[in-house]
């Protein structure tokens, strides 16, 4: 018991530091967030006993250098370069002009949320959706009275709508495979759970954006400047690898900017470098998080929580709370909803079978809960990506994340008001 609690102490320290610094700064910027993870990493290394310091650091380094984390580093760098070079050549401004001509300003916020929902359904990935839409969202915030945290939250929330529902989403695939049900069945079951939350959030965004004022678009649409965004969006929808999409976007901004005289090759390289350097804090936070949670897993903190949350189950409702709690805790420890579902999927299936819970329901609870938690983690890839592109702190976005919050309430309501299903 004491060893298990000791293994979890880095998470407790991290949460306390987040709360304290959030209250002090009125919204933690990414620099203090990096400081929090440095302190937490030192705590995690210091509390790991029974092995030499070199071996502790080796375990930490293996977690920080996992293939999935290094893939995210590449995505962060290319996304930063694309956003910076597109803005430098005027692509962001041209895309905003086009959006303001198509969409009334009063509905821009709700429109961003709906666009993110539809895009994520087609793409099956929240990170790809944020990469495609966040530059447009930041441009809209600059051209209207909407604030950056609000528009960023609208895109992030909509991104998780599709991440939860899309039949090509990795979380959906893992959840259905682990629970032994078909993706189409899980979709029909799951959509009844998430639709009320999506409708409420859309209405809320219409209300919040009703008095939005913006700069009227004037002159002709510079279509050649819009092309890098359109190509990136179409390629993402076609499920081309996100690294290929972002690299193609960077090459298009280079070619288009040089041809129309927006910059030369040297100034393009300087803009791309500024974009990459702007992501440096987020990259370090991601690597530190991977190392911290690797040490927590090594010390048995993860296994301890699983055993504590499943040992006293006596009812179907308790079993459902346990499934949600397991995947939520795994998500906090991994900052990746797919890995979280993989980690506890077999245990969740065993619990569901023991208490006669429909596999479609257990798959929906796993997937939806993981998206709720992932959508609120300031050190998750999605919020780090959104904050990096928008140039704001990840914590400043969290209070405006209405969709994950309402989705959490929906999950709670479905458990409390559930009917026993055969």
Strand content: under 5%
Main sheet specs: none
Shape, per Cα inertia axes:
globular
Average predicted confidence as pLDDT: 82
What is the ordering of alpha helices and beta strands?
A: HHHHHHHHHHHHHHHHHHHHH
Q: What distance separates the N and C termini? A: 37 Å
Number of helices: 21
As a whole number of angstroms, the C-alpha radius of gyration is 22 Å
DSSP summary, beta strand count: 0
Which stretches are low in confidence, meaning pLDDT under 50 for 5 or more residues running?
none
**Helix/strand/pairing category:** mainly alpha
Which percent range fits the helix content?
over 70%
* Assembly context of the chains: single chain
Question: What topology does this entry show?
Answer:
Elements: H1 2-25, H2 30-47, H3 53-64, H4 67-88, H5 91-102, H6 108-123, H7 126-143, H8 148-165, H9 170-179, H10 183-208, H11 223-237, H12 242-259, H13 265-277, H14 280-298, H15 301-310, H16 316-334, H17 337-354, H18 359-374, H19 381-390, H20 394-397, H21 402-416
Descriptive report:
It is a single chain. The chain is mainly alpha-helical and 422 residues long. It has helices spanning 2-25, 30-47, 53-64, 67-88, 91-102, 108-123, 126-143, 148-165, 170-179, 183-208, 223-237, 242-259, 265-277, 280-298, 301-310, 316-334, 337-354, 359-374, 381-390, 394-397, 402-416. It is globular. The protein starts with a helix and ends in a 6-residue tail after the last helix. The mean pLDDT is 82.
List keywords for this structure.
422 residues, mainly alpha, 21 helices
